[in-house]
């Protein structure tokens, strides 16, 4: 149960609920579909990989690198880091909206939340505050993340669902369009892009795989924890989305503001308007906690890999607290530049959506690498110990790996389609940002890998970083080849002596 609750707190975020509320009842279909083809496969496949390499550093770099080589492994850990960097402005936009709704005048709050200058300033202030806290060390991050997750996510999620139930039970008007039914109209292809963003709702579950060896009887209890956690997560998402749909008509839903407007409307209905600023502060605190967790997480992963010789020495510098200072500062610079995209995007909402889609694209590439690597390793490292194994043969791994890969591929393709519900401005800008963004981000690690030098390796870090299985095989083959190579000249000399004696 402890692991199940950890799964819920790691995955659940309320900021994406408005994106699915426009679908009405059919949103439940999308949540369940994404859970079956992505959430559960991600958790189960990552658990086997994490248990298999529980004594080795590297995370997804290790998993993918063992299957495809260090270059592709570096691409995977790079995508995990850069995806989170691009994600910050979107989640912080939600934080800015939360701050705007701290006031007591809803019309004024909505105007402030739509103001680009206000949003830009708040995004940058919250992000850099989170960065400076992260530079203080893990103790600060842990304390704020622990309380922020509970106060800013779990409690508001439960409250939103309860408010929705009270609203309907007391005769409140249901604004949700029930004519759509559970199964969506899949013929409206341009509307599926918002549904594909559900996959990112479930992202991060692979990080729970590191706890697989801490569970008693992991072969039995880990899958149970994943299934329980997944069911609770899906219930929170479905019921929370419904709660917003009950109180806000689909045509009035805004991706950035509707969660706060929904709370405002419920509190007004119950004559509890004083509670609106309280929930806005709680949600803002939850955003800060979430950003803190991610600021220190993926950056630490790529920092560890970088010290093994994959990043220049500049990116290996730490402060006196042992925190990856330069990576965090560069990361902050990228976030600041992305936040300035407000200048060219037609609205806060369109900026939010296009960065969200770029984030989805990059993260899904990493997931496709992870799923395919897990299958490949069943054959490349068939005799390697697997403390947690999916099935006795390879059938279950093929099923879950292919299910996750195909689900991620489907979401990847759909993410390029401009959403029909949102004015994103020119389609040229939309496609340019997504296509050029993907090509630039995916190409960068290959350039860095090609330019790497022996001087980049930190001797101490490299010693702690275990070699890949194929590196050990090559070393063993080289060692075996040396005696054979040395034997050839000796044999030739002996033959020559015999020939001379014969003459």
UniProtKB/TrEMBL annotation:
GO CC annotations, alphabetized: plasma membrane
MF terms in GO: transmembrane transporter activity
Entry membrane topology: Multi-pass membrane protein
Claim: Amino-acid biosynthesis is one of the keywords in the record: no
One Pfam family, short name: AA_permease_2
Subcellular location: Cell membrane
InterPro entries: AA/rel_permease1, APC_superfamily, Glu/GABA_antiporter_put
Stretches that traverse the bilayer: 28-53, 86-105, 117-135, 147-169, 192-213, 225-248, 268-295, 327-348, 354-377, 398-417, 429-451
Keywords: Cell membrane, Membrane, Transmembrane, Transmembrane helix, Transport
Low complexity bias (residue ranges): 482-494
Region (Disordered): 482-503
NCBIfam families: put_Glu_GABA_T (TIGR03813)
Protein name as annotated: Amino acid transporter
């Amino acid at each position: 149960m402890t692991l199940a609750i950890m799964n819920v707190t790691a995955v659940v975020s309320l900021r994406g609920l408005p994106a699915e509320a426009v679908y009405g009842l059919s949103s439940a279909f999308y949540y369940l579909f994404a859970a079956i083809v992505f959430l559960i496969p991600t958790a189960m496949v990552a658990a086997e990989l994490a248990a298999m390499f529980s004594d080795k550093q590297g995370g997804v770099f290790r998993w993918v690198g063992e299957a495809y080589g260090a270059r592709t492994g570096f691409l995977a850990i790079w995508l995990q880091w850069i995806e989170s960097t691009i994600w910050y402005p979107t989640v912080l936009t939600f934080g800015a909206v939360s701050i705007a709704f701290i006031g007591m005048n809803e019309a004024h709050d909505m105007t402030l939340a739509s103001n680009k200058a206000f949003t830009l300033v708040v995004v940058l202030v919250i992000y850099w505050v989170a960065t400076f806290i992260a530079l203080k060390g893990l103790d600060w991050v842990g304390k704020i993340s622990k309380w922020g997750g509970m106060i800013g996510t779990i409690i508001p999620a439960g409250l939103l669902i309860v408010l929705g139930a009270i609203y309907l039970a007391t005769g409140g008007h249901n604004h949700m369009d029930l004519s759509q039914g559970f199964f969506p109209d899949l013929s409206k292809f341009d509307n599926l892009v918002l549904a594909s963003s559900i996959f990112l709702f479930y992202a991060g579950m692979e990080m729970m795989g590191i706890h697989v060896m801490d569970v008693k009887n992991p072969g039995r209890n880990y899958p149970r924890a994943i299934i329980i956690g997944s069911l609770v997560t899906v219930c929170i998402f479905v019921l929370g989305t419904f709660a917003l749909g009950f109180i806000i008509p689909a045509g009035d839903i805004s991706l950035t503001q509707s969660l706060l407007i929904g709370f405002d409307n419920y509190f007004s209905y119950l004559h509890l308007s004083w509670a609106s600023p309280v929930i806005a502060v709680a949600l803002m605190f939850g955003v800060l906690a979430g950003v803190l967790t991610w600021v220190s997480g993926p950056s630490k992963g790529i920092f560890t890999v970088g010290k093994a010789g994959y990043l220049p020495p500049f990116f290996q510098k730490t402060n006196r607290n042992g925190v990856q200072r330069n990576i965090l500062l560069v990361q902050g610079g990228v976030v600041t530049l992305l936040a300035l995209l407000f200048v060219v995007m037609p609205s806060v909402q369109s900026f939010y959506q296009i960065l969200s889609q770029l984030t989805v694209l990059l993260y899904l590439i990493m997931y496709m690498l992870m799923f395919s690597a897990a299958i490949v390793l069943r054959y490349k490292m068939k005799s390697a110990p697997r403390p947690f194994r999916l099935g006795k043969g390879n059938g279950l791994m093929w099923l879950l790996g292919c299910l996750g890969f195909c689900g991620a591929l489907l979401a990847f393709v759909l993410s390029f389609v401009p959403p029909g519900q949102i004015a994103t401005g020119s389609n040229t800008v939309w496609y340019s940002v997504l296509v050029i963004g993907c090509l630039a981000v995916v190409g960068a690690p290959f350039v860095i890998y090609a330019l790497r030098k022996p001087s980049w390796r930190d001797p101490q870090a490299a010693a702690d970083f275990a070699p890949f299985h194929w590196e050990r095989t090559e070393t063993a083959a080289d060692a075996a080849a040396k005696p054979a190579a040395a034997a050839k000249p000796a044999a030739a000399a002996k033959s020559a002596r015999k020939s001379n004696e014969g003459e």
